[in-house]
Amino acid sequence: MIFDCNTLTAAELYPLLAGTIVPRPIAWVSTVDEYGRSNLAPFSFFQLVCDAPPTLMLSVNRKAGGAQKDTARNIAATGQLVVHLVSPADLALMNATAGDYAPDVSEIDALQIATVPAQMVKPPRLAHSLVSFECECVSLSAYPAEAPACDLILAKVLCLHIDDSLLNAEGRIRHDQIDWLARLGGQWYCHTQHEDNLTLARPNQATPRR
Ligand SMILES: Cc1cc2nc3c(=O)[nH]c(=O)nc-3n(C[C@H](O)[C@H](O)[C@H](O)COP(=O)(O)O)c2cc1C
Predict the structure, then answer these.
(1) What sequence ranges are listed for the domain Flavin reductase like (predicted)?
(2) pLDDT tens digits, residue range 30-88?
(3) Which residues contact 190 (CB under 8 A, 6 or more apart)?
(4) Which of 1, 49, 103, 129 is the most exposed place for a label (fewest CB within 10 A)?
């Protein structure tokens, strides 16, 4: 079956795209507004898009009517965010932070999530998070410009926090210990740690550089 994007509505296209381009990592993003009030929400339209400079991409949909979600509005106002990766134990809590909270209500306060100050930016860091990235926004663009459906955000990573349990004696990532929650289509999720995970050497390259 072929699906012609010119004949489908956004509501018809979303489950076809989001249900096939899987798994998607989840960015659990903390921000603050211009008054310093905190916000926390998950986003799976998220990726590492450049390592030099270290840059993440985040796509935040507009609400019905075109208003920005709190996360995009806060990033536009302050230029800062902290991106956390989500451990399986946080499934319910992560989902709860996607609830419909008023802009002046902090999901962090409402759900009593413990935080610690970030080192280089104002948004707080989740105290229990195993990996987080303190970032500054380098680009926020409404897309598409003529009728914005989302805000595309490029965020430069200023520093990484990686729990010692995920590092070996040489300070390298213990790949077999990394276990994040990732989004599949609809209400489906998966873990990145799985008994079928495997290793594969690149031709003529012991350790992949890219
Ligand atoms: C696992 C998961 C992934 C999500 N991914 C996205 C996404 O990529 N883009 C988006 O706009 N909303 C996404 N959402 C919905 C937002 O988290 C939700 O709209 C949230 O209320 C936005 O919060 P904010 O208004 O505080 O920014 C996702 C929700 C969940 C549970």
Answers:
(1) 19-176
(2) 999 999 999 999 999 999 999 999 999 999 999 999 999 999 999 999 999 999 999 99
(3) 22, 23, 181, 182, 184
(4) 1
- Please return the burial class of 55, using the count of CB atoms within 10 Å of its CB with bins 0-12, 13-18 and 19+: middle
Instruction: Tell me: pLDDT of 206 over 90.
Output: no
Per-residue tokens: 179: 């276990």
Q: CA nearest 61: which of 74, 49, 84, 45?
A: 45
Query: What kind of architecture, by CATH, is found in domain 25-191?
Result: Roll (2.30)
pLDDT digits (tens, 9 = 90+) for 184-200: 999 999 999 999 999 99
- Place 205 in a pLDDT band, splitting at 50, 70 and 90: confident
Any ligand 1 atom below 6 A from CB of 45: yes
Q: Does the Cβ of 41 fall within 6 Å of ligand 1?
A: yes
Quick check: bond before 144 cis, omega within 30? yes
* CB-count burial class (<10 Å; 0-12, 13-18, 19+) for 148: middle
**E strand or H helix at 47, and its extent?**
strand 46-51
Nearest residue (CA) to ligand 1, atom 19:
98
